[in-house]
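#structure-requests
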Amino acid sequence: MGEKGWVQTDFGWAAVDSAGADLLQTIDAAALRAMRIAGVDEAGRGPLAGPVYAAAVVLDPDRPIEGLNDSKALSERARDALAPQIRERALAWCVASVSVEEIDRLNILNATMLAMRRAVEGLGLAPDLVQVDGNRAPALTCRVQTVIGGDALVPAISAASILAKTARDAELLRLHEIYPMYGFDRHKGYGTPDHLRCLVEHGPCPEHRRSFEPVRQALAARGMPAPDAAARAEPAAAPGLLWTDLEAPPARARTRRRAERRRDEREPGAGERS
């Protein structure tokens, strides 16, 4: 296990092994089938505007979904076709978001961790393992593993990436109706030349992230204040820990969602949370 991931703690970031999908290859097939594994991914860390989204998905091994892949590798049409299948066939799913105001207050990294935590907590069941795309994960009350490139390797993470991406794209289309001068329907808030031109021409709107440098520059050009840089500081890393050294988390009571009934009733998974 050469690669390291980082799990957020109250004291900063704790290093953990990031074994990728290899961890699951060491588990007996019957045991693996019995495990409830939640895949988690985010959408919207990089854009200059709009909330950051995250999704958590627990797939049903008895109801496979063909075509799952990293949402960035799929066409918009393919994502839109897969999203309702995921919501219908998954044992549980939840989409969560963190607002622009929270992003500017917490910084984008902490806001992304918060969105992921909200998504997992909204599942309505306690996963045996949570696999998070990338090398950073939030602190949760269950086992956590970071999976670099997981959105293309782990089907549950692929499904989460699709739900997070489609939900965020829908939100940016909604924002386009309110602020059509920025072209959110075209670039979804990313810092494209077109978006930067509109930002200079019209100035930031309430949905622009004022802690992001291009938006700060646009504010400064209009003599408007920007957030304190201290709010954007990233917490320091905590001393390193191995994944196997972390104490087993306490058992977690099932929560308010109906996902725990899915195996018998085959009802839709947990709904969106914003």
